[in-house]
Write a structure and sequence with these properties.
The protein is mainly beta. The protein folds into 2 domains: about 10-110 and about 120-290, Jelly Rolls (Sandwich); about 295-435, Jelly Rolls (Sandwich). Helices cover about 5% and strands about 40% of the residues. Strands 1, 7, 8, 10, 11, 12, 13, 14, 18 and 24 form a 10-stranded antiparallel sheet that branches. The chain has a 6-stranded antiparallel sheet with strand order 6-22-21-23-20-19, with no helix packed on it. It is globular. It binds 2-(3,6-dihydroxyphenyl)acetic acid and fe (ii) ion (FE2). 2-(3,6-dihydroxyphenyl)acetic acid binds near residues 308, 345, 350, 354 and 411. One of its GO terms (molecular function) is homogentisate 1,2-dioxygenase activity. Keywords: Dioxygenase, Iron, Metal-binding, Oxidoreductase, Phenylalanine catabolism, Tyrosine catabolism. Belongs to the homogentisate dioxygenase family. It comes from Breoghania corrubedonensis. One of its GO terms (biological process) is L-tyrosine catabolic process.
Length: about 450
Amino acid sequence: MNELTTAARAKPDATKAGPASYMPGFGNDFETEALPGALPQGQNSPQKCNYGLYAEQLSGTAFTAPRGQNERTWCYRIRPSVKHTGRFEKIDVPYWKSAPNVDPDVISLGQYRWDPVPMTDVDLTWITGMRTMTTAGDVNTQVGMAAHVYLVTRSMQDEYFFSADSELLVVPQAGRLRFATELGVIDLEPKEIAILPRGLVYRVEVLEGPARGFVCENYGQKFDLPGRGPIGANCMANPRDFKTPVAAFEDHEAESTVVVKWCGAFHATKIGHSPLDVVAWHGNYAPCKYDLRTYSPVGAILFDHPDPSIFTVLTAPSGQPGTANIDFVLFRERWMVAEHSFRPPWYHKNIMSELMGNIYGVYDAKPQGFVPGGMSLHNMMLPHGPDRDAFEGASNADLKAEKLDETMSFMFETRFPQHLTTFAASEAPLQDNYIDCWDSLEKKFDGTPGEK
Ligand SMILES: O=C(O)Cc1cc(O)ccc1O
Ligand SMILES: [Fe+2]
């Protein structure tokens, strides 16, 4: 394993034990240096940088994007990135698919649920272990998303990756991973998430394996914090709980491979050193992680069940105000107090497509069958809601204040229909009988009012 050098690494980490150190804030203009004086002050592009470093800008938005959306980072690195790619050769990464990806033999119209993709001893890296479940939109026009499951059993060695197609939202469910990135180190475990920006080069190491989790690959505009509207300035996800790593670099010479995802295809290029050579950087285009346990849910405190948008952690806009390319929504522990109300999710049909995953515990609308590591898909305009047990239980419950405990599920909700991959339809553990969970819902109507 290559050890990243960082001066700031010596500082105690306020959030957790371990070697990675972070700076708080979401979308801040950060500055950080792993060697004293490596970061130029007062200008971006000095005639000569200290330590013989090269200055380079990484633009995450168009140069002319409006202030407030404009994101870029200045890197001071041992070699410019042009030395970190050579000629490209196409490689096959058969399980990582991009939209549009429509298997004519697969029917995506339906309510689907999967058991967890089984853990394995097979040698799988972040790249080879990615299994696409659904795709939506079009990677070439930078709209839509893909939902993946990853199984990672082996660290990448002298191998690096970046996606020019997308930003990745990583939601671990088992195991611990280290993302050694150009801009610093992120250690990630279940109940945390990470955002890896488009174009960022990194290596993924297994700290505790096997590791399994979910990835939302966002082809479109970056994830942002949602507006809180009348909720005000606090609660939901608070900016200070997002953590961006301090600068960390490698000065490591070895035969290495950089794999690039570009327009849905994978390409490899050979170089003779580690590309993780940014000694100092400043800017607002950077990876971060977030502890989902710091999410402060706001909900119904008297009656009824609000729309799940109330639990939005992050939203990736689509250009149409209020209609997201992707919302990342969290269903976590919370108190249920609503009076004279059916408390779980109601029955509904949604113009948005809902892909859900279970991180741990039991989800209130599906007491059985939706298990940690499992996923479900309720595609555009496909009706769904509580299974029979959940319906009967909640319709007849004594409505005292009740804590929904030991539960954490999430939703990737997109305005676009999601298409199942061949893997999702035929190799992944699809539950054939999922829709039977509504079978025994009986007709109660008999023309007379009153309790049924
Ligand atoms: O379908 C689901 O379980 C997700 C969901 C939860 C909720 O509380 C309201 C609507 C909704 O789609
Ligand atoms: Fe739903």
